[in-house]
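Recall that a protein's primary structure is simply its ordered list of amino acids. Everything else, from secondary elements to tertiary packing, is in principle encoded there. The following example makes that idea concrete.
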Amino acid sequence: MKAIPLMMTIAARTGFGLLSALAIVPAAIGQPADPRAERGLQVITTLSDGAGQPVLDALRRDMPAFGDAVLTYALGDVFGSDALDIRTRQLAVVAAFAAQGNLPYLKIHAGYALNNGVKPQELLDIALVTTVTAGFPRAIDAAQALREVFAQRGIALPLAKN
């Protein structure tokens, strides 16, 4: 099988774009693959519930060195570490983005958190804690961002009391 059809097959099987498939093609054709890249792809598959990550694919296409750094370091090394379970890591990431006021990434990672067992109430509690760590304006922004994520997923507010 030639390289391009093989890459397309891998892309189709993994649910990732063609560029993301490039990280695992060497293993498929008998060459050693980068284990950090493979771990990064596994992480994004788990986080996104198999949907992939278009921003990562675009980075790897348009700025390969930067995209590969995200794949190998941020996803493969940091997010791929087993020191924290995925739920705890996603709660920490959402809290950090809430405190920074980085709403686009908060939304992405809130979705990943929901994909991996974090409850909507836990995310709302992160927004509440943000009032203490970063102030009410950042907390209100985080709550608004979570409202958008919940609406996209059909999660009605106010949440039912458990």
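Residues 58 and 64 are 9 Å apart (CA to CA). Residues 3-79 form one domain.
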